[in-house]
Amino acid sequence: MACCVATGCSNRSNRKDLSFYRFPKDLERRTLWISAVNRGEWEPTEYSRLCSQHFISGEKSNDPQSPDYVPSLFGSDKTQKSSKQRAAKRIERSAMKLKKRDQKDRLTAASVLLGLAMAAAPADVTDQQSTEQSDQDILNDLLPDLQTDVQEEITDPADVQEEDELEEISDEEPETITELPPPEAHLHMNVKDQ
């Protein structure tokens, strides 16, 4: 099975749509073909072939005036250039990955060191006191609002009217009312529990 000797061409003679040509025996024309193939110091053997894809019309010509007298369509320059570009892009992507990994490792290390430093540092007494003081300030700010809300619940006019109606209906005073603690006691219990 014949294979094309052009750099980057993998055509074989098993393809019916291609023709394969031997290198010419005429020394001048042979030299032109070898130069066109551009494989450096390479010399073709009697088995070396070029496929018809390297000729403009798709077949060789024996007319010295024809552009197909010498093969001229070679993608090796394009192939070599694109492979160099792909290699450069691969290297660039690899460098970017390494840079990102390095940044991530640095951030992780800084985070760990910061965590260790915070865990090892003794609690500052003034910070603890200021935190306790700010908690007390918040509680003092909320306390009047809570007292007002509780007082409004106790002295809601609708509740007072319902209680008056209940007293009129019943001749006896309910035992549960006398057993309940005064509203002020309830207010103080809530403040202390918080």
Write the layout of secondary structure elements.
Layout: E1 20-22, H1 27-37, E2 49-51, H2 76-120, H3 125-154, H4 157-169, H5 175-179, H6 183-193
Antiparallel strand pairs: 1-2
Organism: Nothobranchius kadleci (African annual killifish)
GO molecular function, one term: sequence-specific DNA binding
Function: DNA-binding transcription regulator that regulates endothelial cell proliferation and G1/S cell-cycle progression. Specifically binds the 5'-[AT]NTNN[GT]GGCA[AGT]-3' core DNA sequence and acts by modulating expression of pRB-E2F cell-cycle target genes.
Mind explaining what this structure looks like?
Pfam families: THAP. One of its GO terms (molecular function) is DNA-binding transcription factor activity. Residues 58-87, 123-194 are annotated as: Disordered. This is THAP domain-containing protein 1. The protein is mainly alpha-helical. It has 3 domains: 20-74, no CATH class; 76-118; 136-193. The protein has helices spanning 27-37, 76-120, 125-154, 157-169, 175-179, 183-193, and strands spanning 20-22, 49-51. Strands 1-2 form a two-stranded antiparallel ribbon. The model is unreliable at 190-194 (pLDDT under 50).
SSE order, as H and E? EHEHHHHH
Tell me the radius of gyration: 49 Å
Helix segment count?
6
Indicate how many domains the architecture comprises: 3
- Main sheet: strand order: 1-2
At a glance:
This is THAP domain-containing protein 1. Belongs to the THAP1 family. The protein is mainly alpha-helical.
